[in-house]
Amino acid sequence: MAVTQSWRAASPELVEQMRQLLPHQVEDWATEWRQRNLPLQEFLRALWRFASMPRIRENERILYERVDAGLIILSLSVLPSDSSWAAAVRLMQRLLVMLGGDSIPEPRPSNVAGNLHDAWYQGHMDQAEARTVQLVRQAGIRGLLVQLMAPSAPATVPSMLPSLWRVSTRMVQRWSGQDLALGFRLATRAQASWVSNRHRLQVLTPESEQARYRTWNDTAYVVDLIREMRPMAALGDVLACYQPHLAGALLARIAQGAAGLSNRRLASLLVEVSAVTVATTPAMDADQVSRHLLAIMDWLHLSRYAPSETDERIAIWTAWGWFLAVALAFLSPDGAIAGAVPVEPIDDDCALWGALQTGNADEAVAQAWAFGDVAEVWHAIIDEAAVVAAPDTLRMVWAYKPWLSDAAFGVPLLPAVVRIMSQMRPALVIRGGV
C-alpha cells in the first residue's frame, strides 16, 4: 500500500512533465519512467488527469477527443495486456497533438453564492466549476448527478456531454483517493458552455402516452416505423432529422403504445431497438453513429439519478428522440429483424476473427449472432480496440457493456458492436493504424 501511495504522490509531477513535453519526446520520457518501475495504473491515472484539465481554448472537437481518451484509458486499466504501455504512450502523443499542454490552473477552494443551475444557465464556467467542487464535497457524486438530472437542468442528449459525465464518473469510481470534485471540473464547464449556447436544440419528448394497441414484438414494430419514415429523412444530417415531423412523429407513434411500459422496460426497449438496427444494416457514418449511441446509452444510465420517476421517464424519452434522429440520418433498417441466429450456439470465435481480419462484415456479424455467452469474446474486443486505438469500436463496447447483465445476452449487443468494428477495420488498415 505504501508503494502505491508513494507513486500516487508523484502524480502531480507526472502531469506537470506531460505538459512540458513535445510529441516526439514522449517515448523516451515514458521509457525512463518505466525503468523506474512506474506502475501502468498510476501512469494511466496521471494521463487522465492531464487529458481532463480544461484548456485555454475549448471546442466540441476537443470534447470528443477527451471522451475517446477516457474510454481508451478505462479499457487499458480494466484489461491490461502486454501492449497496454505502447497503447498508452500512443494516446499521450495524440493528446499532446490534439489538446496541447496549455491548461488553466486548478481552482482554489472557495465559498461561492448561488446554485449550480444558475451557473450552468448563465454560462459561467468558472462559477460552475467552483460550485461543483463545493457540491461534491458536501453531497458526494450522487448529489452532483441528481443536480444534473433535476427538472430545472436542461437535457444534454443532443450533444456528447452525457458521455463526458459518465466517463468522469467511471474514473472517479475506478481510482479511489483522488479529489472527487476535480474529476468533474471538465464536465461541468462543458455543461455551462452547452447550456448557454443560444443555438442548442430543444428536447423532443412525446406530448402524451397512450396504450391503443399491444404489439407482439415491440422491437420489430419500432424498426418497421423507422423503415417507413426513412424515405423522408435527410441522409447524413442528424440535425435535420431531429424535427417534429420526423423524429418527433416517430416518437409520438411509439408513445401510443408505451403507457403500460415501465421506465426500465422503456429504456431496455431502446437498447434492443438500437442494437437490432445497427446489427442488421451497415452504418452510413460509423464514427457519428458510435458517438451518438454512446451518448444515448450514457444518458439512460444518468437518468437513474433523476429525483422522481416522472423526471426519469422524461430523460428516457429524450434519449429516444435523439436515437430516432440518428437512425433516420445514418441507419437504414432492412432485411430480417432478428438476424441469422443458428439453432446451435457456437463457442469457437475463430470464424468471427477470421471474418473481421478479411473485412467480411456480413460474415462477422452472422458469426456474432451465434454466440450465447459473449463474455470472453467481449473482453477480446475490448483488448483489440484499445490496443489498436479504434474509438468507434470502443464507444460501442462501452455503450452496450453495462447492459450485458441486464439483457442476459438476449439482445444483439455483440452483433451491433461487431458491425461497427468490421466497418472500421479496413479504415484503420488504410490509415496505417494497425
Question: Can you walk through the features of this model?
Answer:
- The chain has 434 residues and is mainly α.
- It contains 22 helices and no strands.
- Helix 4 (40-52) runs antiparallel to helix 5 (60-78), helix 8 (125-148) packs across helix 10 (185-195) and helix 17 (350-358) packs antiparallel against helix 18.
- The longest helix has 24 residues, at 125-148.
What's the short version?
Helix content is about 65%, strand content about 0%. It is built from 22 helices and no strands.
Keyphrases for this structure?
globular, 434 residues, mainly alpha
Structural class call reads mainly alpha
- SSE string, helix = H, strand = E? HHHHHHHHHHHHHHHHHHHHHH
The beta-strand count equals 0
**Beginning-to-end CA distance, first to last residue:** 37 Å
Tally of alpha and pi helices:
22
> Low-confidence spans: pLDDT under 50, at least 5 residues?
337-343, 429-434
Indicate the proportion of strand residues: under 5%
Q: Determine the mean pLDDT.
A: 85
Largest sheet: none
> What gyration radius follows from the Cα positions, in whole Å?
22 Å
- Global morphology: globular
Q: Percent helix among the residues?
A: 55-70%
